[in-house]
Amino acid sequence: MTTLVTGTAGFIGYHTAERLLARGEPVVGVDVVNAYYDPSLKEARLQRLAAKAGFSEARIDIADAAALTAIFAAHRPKRVIHLAAQAGVRYSVENPGAYIDSNLVGFANILEGCRHHGVEHLTYASTSSVYGANQDMPFSERHGVGHPLSLYAATKRANELMAHTYAHLYALPCTGLRFFTVYGPWGRPDMALFKFTKAILQGQPIEVYNHGQMQRDFTYIDDIVEGVIRASDQAAEVEAAWDASVPHPDPSRSGVAPYRIFNIGRGAPVQLMAYIETLEAKLGKQATYHMLPMQQGDVSATFADTSALDAAVGYRPSTPIEVGVGRFVDWYRAYYAV
Predict the structure, then answer these.
(1) Is 91 a catalytic site residue?
(2) Mapping DSSP to helix (H, G, I), strand (E, B) and coil, where does residue 268 land?
(3) Which of 7, 35, 114, 265 has the fewest CB atoms within 10 Å, i.e. the most exposed one?
(4) Cβ-count burial of 213 within 10 angstroms (0-12 exposed, 13-18 middle, 19+ buried)?
């Protein structure tokens, strides 16, 4: 069974495609390979995938409807795992147009491709950022998400609503996954762990926002991929016994459509300074801190309730930061020969 995975030059998309290929499943990888961050890292990921049996690359922009439709028509994937997006809370403040093109237009094209080409299940990336101004911890799929604090978060919430509409109108099973601060080998250079590691090894100060008064539910990449694939393996279904005249008590699900949303997070938030101290210990080198105020559009804390994911697919992320950060440092030193 062929799976179309978007964002295969990216961090999570690369790891997801690699895991599917290791299971012996053909993967069609879609990515435009833009310059949001170092394209050479993206090319290196793709080279590793290209060396594996069963991988086909389609270098297109998902905002190009005609090009994407041609890929669906040529390969007829049964499942789609949509991980391509313009990422980053802070960048969305500077360049909102990139988020409209990729996260809204691109996602609409993905939905249309699934609708017209017999896709059996669409699994797509959302984000913990949709919780926005919500202060109730841990974040639950039952919580309201009507107050996003960045355009990035708003586009991802829009994706969830668009997916529900397609699930209802066209019986397209859709599963949305709200990722919580993903890190690990082959990670993104714009993320904290990558930036901190590079700066510390180069003897440069690290930028610590909100003067270090932040906590994140750091989630290791292998845990994320396991959750993604388990969710993809079990298509969302309509709750046949549900009374559609009564509002559903869980807004992450729908009694009238094959639709659901799950958090994927470690479920154990870590103070930012403790995370940095773990990195310093793994590197064997002390950081110099440049303390800064909170960045526009950011939030001070994230914390995932993953009970719904566990109940649905029997999985709960578990990798501690000491293990995950250590694996990242080993990869970074090997990849950059430092």
Answers:
(1) no
(2) coil
(3) 35
(4) middle
Local confidence pLDDT in tens for the 338 residues of the chain = 899 999 999 999 999 999 999 999 999 999 999 999 999 999 999 999 999 999 999 999 999 999 999 999 999 999 999 999 998 888 888 899 999 999 999 999 999 999 999 999 999 999 999 999 898 999 999 999 999 999 999 999 999 999 999 999 999 999 999 999 999 999 999 999 999 999 999 999 999 998 989 999 999 999 999 999 999 999 999 876 666 566 555 555 667 899 999 999 999 999 999 999 999 999 999 999 998 998 887 888 899 999 999 999 999 999 999 999 999 999 999 999 99
| CB distance 183 to 328 below 8 Å | yes
State if pTM tops 0.85: yes
Q: Which of 152, 209, 220, 259 is catalytic?
A: 152
Tokens of 2: 């062929």
User: What is the residue type of 118?
Assistant: G
Identify the CA nearest to 111 among candidates 25, 31, 173: 173
